[in-house]
Amino acid sequence: MSERMTSIHPRKDVEGDTFGMGYANHGRKTRTEMIEKFREYFENQRAQAELALSLTDDQLVVHTYLGPYAMRNREEVPE
C-alpha cells in the first residue's frame, strides 16, 4: 500500500528552466500549505546557494572514494 503524498511544481507553460523544480510532502496537504512549504524550501535553497558561491577555493575540500553509499577508501584530492 502506498502512502499519500502531496506535491507542488510549476505548470508546464511557465517560461524558463523549471525542470526538476518542485517539492513533495507526506500526507494530504492544502494548496495554501504547499505553496508556503514550496517558498520556504526554495528560500532555504537560495541561502545555501549564496553561501556556497561565496566560499573560496581554500574553503572547499575534494574527496575520492569507492561506492556512492559506503564511501570506502576515502581520500582527499589535494590537486
Describe this structure in words.
Helix content is 30%, strand content 22%. The protein is an alpha+beta fold and 79 residues long. A hairpin with a 5-residue loop joins strand 3 and strand 4 (72-76).
- Widest sheet: strand ordering: 1-2
- Using only C-alpha atoms, the radius of gyration works out to 18 Å
Unreliable runs: none
Q: How much helical structure, as a percent, in the residues?
A: 25-40%
Succession of helices and strands = EEHEE
Average pLDDT: 94
Count of discrete structural domains = 1
Count of individual helical segments: 1
Structural class, by secondary structure, is alpha+beta
E-strand count: 4
Q: What spatial form do the alpha-carbon principal axes imply?
A: extended
What is the CA-CA span between the terminal residues? Answer: 50 Å
Portion in strands: 15-25%
